[in-house]
Amino acid sequence: MSLLVVGSLALDTVKTPFGSVEDALGGAAVYFSSAASYFSPVKMVGVVGDDFDAAALDYLKARNTDLRGVETRNGKTFRWGGVYGSDLNSRETTFTHLNVFESFQPKIPAEYRDSEYVFLANIGPELQADVLNQIQGPKLVALDTMNYWIDGSLSALREVLRSVQVLVINDSEAQQLSGEWNLVKAARAIFKMGPELLIVKKGEHGALMIFKDVSFFYAPAYPLEVLHDPTGAGDSFAGGFMGYLAQAGEINPDHFKRALVVGSTMASFCVEQFSVKRLVDLSQGEIEERFNEFWRMTQFQPF
Amino acid sequence: MSLLVVGSLALDTVKTPFGSVEDALGGAAVYFSSAASYFSPVKMVGVVGDDFDAAALDYLKARNTDLRGVETRNGKTFRWGGVYGSDLNSRETTFTHLNVFESFQPKIPAEYRDSEYVFLANIGPELQADVLNQIQGPKLVALDTMNYWIDGSLSALREVLRSVQVLVINDSEAQQLSGEWNLVKAARAIFKMGPELLIVKKGEHGALMIFKDVSFFYAPAYPLEVLHDPTGAGDSFAGGFMGYLAQAGEINPDHFKRALVVGSTMASFCVEQFSVKRLVDLSQGEIEERFNEFWRMTQFQPF
């Protein structure tokens, strides 16, 4: 099945208690594709500057990622800098240079327009809507957003949400979007906006999935002993989730549940190293073994 | 199997965004017994003042709770007051009047001394050690503690931990006790102190159990839509955990896992109402149904 992602490609400068990197490969579309491409071919749409080393994406090409939708423009690539606190839960953004990303207008190549699975990474909701207008009848659209858009572009966000089946956001964003502290109440409010499935990312506390009938599925985060850099965890999670669904082909609750665990699996690899290092050359065996660790961590007998 | 709990009986004055109560039944031993007594007879040790209405514990008596270890002394019962913030995660203690609890010296009645399962609720570690000295060869001892004792009575705490199999604490306490931010590293450090099983309570984020071989089991918190008062959730959790183990009789990893989910089940009921209201007259069916909700929200197929 065909899987499209639209989002940022970036060069990140990150400092954590465990080290630092400068101008390292990053961006939502990159993390997403790095995780998703283990499960499904990915079609990528984004923009880089003429300073971007195209060879940095060779590992994605080797895993059937279609880069024809990645535009190269005159100017510099989007750069982001951040510093994490000692427990890795707090983060301070040191700079955001949008550069060529500032005027990003997603152009969906003709060969991408029949994509069945679509992930709209965290960009402006008008652009997310514009992407959907260029796609013919997708089977499943998932969307990520952030406080910035909920604050500043709420009506555009509400508009695009009407065409979205899966909303993937963190707990504070779910609260802000719905105006509800309680996540169950937040889910009820969000289901009225369009989405049929809410995934609440809770970082080190895992991810809660709420179905439209207000039943739940929960995947913990893997308790890692070595954890270097949380950057990209959410997008790697989304990549594993959507990649698995695209591979599975059929959409049903059991696939959503396993997809949530695949997402958590890929996020757990992501944070073990800086940038996408850990996501470059995982083996199928490593992924299955980690997935089964999640299984062992959660299984018990009912009454 | 016989289950002993030593800890506080209190009258709580609590305010949350959903209401308030004054001098309501509370205390660690009360919450623990309220949950545990659905699974196993409980022997309770604690102290109340002469202002305590003994009839308040009739519901526990009716569920085979032995109250002969609850001393009544001249003076007032331990009183605690707290106010919760809008998201129920932050709590401010408004007063702590120890009253008769200040000079509490646990005396274990002769009939209690062969107790096989022992829960040492959060009291001074010297008193916890004193309890263990009065018990003959218990099968399983679990202990709760808090930042106050880790700060002020660390050597006494380290001493009693040598005789404890299960440590039940929250994440910040595990970090403080071990000096490690990372919970896996914290567990390794704590295993060197005596315990063979670490349960990290994470409130609304569930509970992580770490076995001595550093394998994991995770139970989420139930996503409640109606949640009135988090007071006592941790002790209700411990009560469900120990009550289930005492009922099961045999100690093995599968029982520990189900016990963790029973603990989470009882905590989820506790927080639905103020004080112990929700724990007074649950039916077996309600408990099994909630337990099976946890099962449905975590089960998936491995690779």
Short structural summary:
Two copies of one chain form a homodimer. Chain A is of the alpha/beta class and 303 residues long.
Counting copies of identical and different chains, the oligomeric state is homodimer
Shape of chain A: globular
Largest interface, by Cβ-Cβ below 8 angstroms: which chains and how many residues each?
Answer: A-B, 38 and 38 residues
Biggest sheet, spatial arrangement of strands of chain A: 5-4-1-8-9-10-11-12-13
What is the number of helical segments of chain A per DSSP (H or I, 4+ residues)?
A: 10
Can you name the CATH architecture of chain A? 3-Layer(aba) Sandwich
Q: Mind describing the biggest β-sheet of chain A?
A: 9 strands, mixed
Weakly predicted, low-confidence segments of chain A: none
Structural class of chain A: alpha/beta
CATH class category label of chain A:
Alpha Beta
* Strands of chain A, total number: 13
Spatial extent as radius of gyration of chain A: 18 Å
What is the CATH superfamily of chain A?
A: Ribokinase
Strand % of chain A is: 25-35%
Number of spatially distinct domains of chain A:
1
Helix-strand pattern of chain A, N to C? EEEHEHEEEEHEHHEHHEEEHHH
* Mean model confidence by pLDDT of chain A: 97
